[in-house]
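Example 3.
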Amino acid sequence: MKKGDLIISAILFLVSLVYVIEARKLPMSDGLSPGAGFIPFGVGLSVLFLSAFLFLKSLKMKTTVGQTVFLKKEQGLRDLGYIMISLFIYLVGIHFFGFRVSTFLFLAFLFKSVGRYGYAFSCGISLLTTLTLYGIFEYWLEMPFPAGRVVLF
Amino acid sequence: MAKISDTWVLLVVFFLLAIIGLCLFPYSGSVPSIYAQAYPTKGIQLIVPFPPGGSTDLTGRVVASYLSKKWGQPISVVNKPGAGGTTGVVFALQAKNDGYTMLMHVTSAGTLNPAIEKKLPYKWDDPTLIAQTNISPLVFIIKGDSPWKDLREVVEDVKKDPTRFKYGTSGPGGPSTFAIAQLLESAGVDPTKVARIVLQGGAPTVTAVAGGHVDFAAQNLSEVISLIEAKKIRGLAVTTSKRVKQLPDIPTGKEAGFGALNLVGWNGVAGPPHLPDYVIKKWDEGIREAMKDPHFLEEMERIGADAAYLGPSEFKAFLQEQYQSALKIAENLGLRK
Amino acid sequence: MEVISKLMLGFSVALTPINLLYCFVGVTIGTLIGVLPGIGPTAGIAILIPVSLSLPPTTAIIMLAGIYYGSMYGGSTTAILINTPGEAASIPTALDGYKLARQGRAGAALAMAAMASFIAGTISIIGLMLLAPPLASVALAFGPPEYFSLMFLGLTIVVSLAGKSLIKGLVSALLGIMISTIGVDPISGTERFSYGNANLLAGIDFISVVVGLFAITEILINAEESMIEVFKTKLKGLWPTLQDWKDSKGALIRSSILGFLIGLLPGASASVAAFICYDVEKKWSKHPEKFGQGVIEGVAAPEGANNSAVAGGLVPLLTLGIPPSAPLAVLLGALMIHGLRPGPLLFEQNPNFVWGLIGSMYIGNIMLLVLNLPLVGFWARLIKVPYPILAPVVLALCVIGSYGVRNNMLDVWIALFFGVLGFFMRKLDFPAAPVILSIILAPMIENALRQSLGISRGSILIFFTRPISAGLLILAAVSLTLSVYGRIKESSKTQQLIGSTSDYIEGSKK
């Protein structure tokens, strides 16, 4: 897929460029053995070259038959969006509201929007699942989930 | 189909529920205890800045198990490994100082890292230092079938041509680094001339000595004991002032001719800065009592820890002394960045 | 033979009601932990150490060990069903197992995974029983140069895993290396790429990356396609066919032995064993190009390997007190807390314990087989749960799983990041497996390289003058050659079939 390859190889090129520049700041030698910057420098450089190569190669590529559309179906796109964004909000929510509440909201939201179930069903299953997860992990296994209302990092 | 507005309604309703939920369901660690006499009134988290199974983790578990029985509240060990102990310590330092998040402190994170790392996010005296729980003697080890008979022979050989030798250490600031440096410096040898091979943890270091990949090392008692018993390595000296119970045949540094050796591993309990007095007193008393409990002592011995109590002021003084020694060595070795 | 009488002693210990009970508890919990994405046996054993303190030592260790090898059974379940390996050791299983599931053959794959685990587990315990002391000294002979060469051999598998575009495979692998350098440099203590963030200092845990790249990505990909039709293919029977057995029998034997040997080398974990055995099977096979499309040996080999690596890992642990991998390091801690000090004296002073443990491992494997086989039907039907319900729950489990690794929310964010990244990688044909393989191996390779050069004072010859290291490097060269040869053959075959370079054709969606 030509456009995708072009974009990704350009991004890779930039990322590895930054990486290499940062790697140069690290010591290359410890005295007798390679230092902290040795491997990063070499690896970064390799990615730099490979991504440049990839970029040029995808420029040459013809956009031919059989090329699937990057993102099919509007339906799928919406579902995808729901999941990605709600995941993000879920994680933020854990920081602020804690695990239990956030999980409940997250699950219910997805059941309703992606699963297209009714409100009652979504909330119900979500509640059930959240309680089960709480019971297993927070209560029985005593895993210390973030308490919420404290931004932890 | 009005799907989007459906979802918005849902979100609003749920946020309202969330706020209600917040008020109704208390989370552990969110409500501080008001009554000092009643401390602890709920479960405590003991942060261990290393992965499970290591010596700090084991010590933490023994302490937690004893204190939770004594105080009738659960004390759970929470491992927060990373960056040689830094992640866990920083986490504990940033926690609320209500006594419900405490730290199982250890040599590397407590005195060695601050000596090496100029840019460490904390200083050695940032945590509230409460009580020492145990000493972990360092043992100088060589390969089991090595021709050296005692520590003096090793040092002599190294003095003749330091560049021929290499020692292993469990991390950039591992106990070996400092102990070997202290040993060699006291004999007039420049430790930077000997190759320092940094391995990942105590077990690989001890294994490397046993396999002959490095010539010697100095690691914690708990790490060396199995291989000494298996006769794959030999211990030449311990860094404590008295001989070690589990290895009675190994002389102390002083007996072996090197009185300057004073670096030991240690564990202790600590907490976030500005810990209330009643918390400090409670933990101090708890550890002091533990030293009299035979079951606690037995468990400590099993994990290779030498139970030894130091109260808050003595603990701090001891740490200061260890830190200063480590600092000097770090600067001499050019380790301090 | 003396061993038989010792084994009888072991069984007499293992078959007591309390030991049987806790063996069962351990393997069941282990299976569940294996199924759960993220948390692995390391965390599982650690979490249950306090519980074990109230048990007699032998019983406690029987339970904790059961968690370890049990997790190797469990990891394959989600790997096959939803392309979500519960452990890194199950990633190779997912490569072919998931394809089989999509073809309706989930039952066969799951059953074969359970059988392979059982057969390899049993064979490897025999190895443990008979060969422990002599093999332990092999573990000691491994120094930094040998580690380097072994890990390097492991890394050559990347070529094999690269899929259609070798360049993209290499980029994936190199990206994995770049990711692994974030954090504190383990040798010099210098900060790398972490910019003062105390959490980043700890580095990126590979488990979060696995959860992201496999579990989360899979759900995102499926979401985009269609949430409804993920497992429409009719279930084609629950058991492996006779043909499956014929195809796999070689794989089973090879992976049992090879997995055991790799497992006992310090540093080589069950996942390394699984990857290597998968690759060995691919090279041995008469139809290597079919690997990755759903070949039953592609399930049998890694599953056998990760179980036999567990028994292999117990060799240095029990005889020398050297844990070759993280879960075993925790187990060592448990042993110490219970007053059992590993070493040759352990065999003499506590024969009841050692042989009891060995006996219980046989029994545990049988229990796991009995537990998992009937469950195959259950699991295969579980995936019929509507995907819109299953997927969010799996996502929540991913959050829990990645958090549980280090009790750090950063790991969850990392999983999310890689989940999204993995989506784009999948769309653009960048393979995910090399990333994980590199993240696991790169730190070890880098450390070993620097340590070895420190020992040799800068001379590269050290890798070639030491026999084991040289031997491993030769194997690596062989492996590379075979992989490259395989790729050339493959692409020329495709060229003949299609008549134009395969690069220009947008190939399979997955």
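Residues 70-153 of chain A form one domain. Chain A touches chain B at residues 32, 97-98, 100-101, 104-105, 108-109, 112-113, 119, 142, 144, 147-149 (CB under 8 Å).
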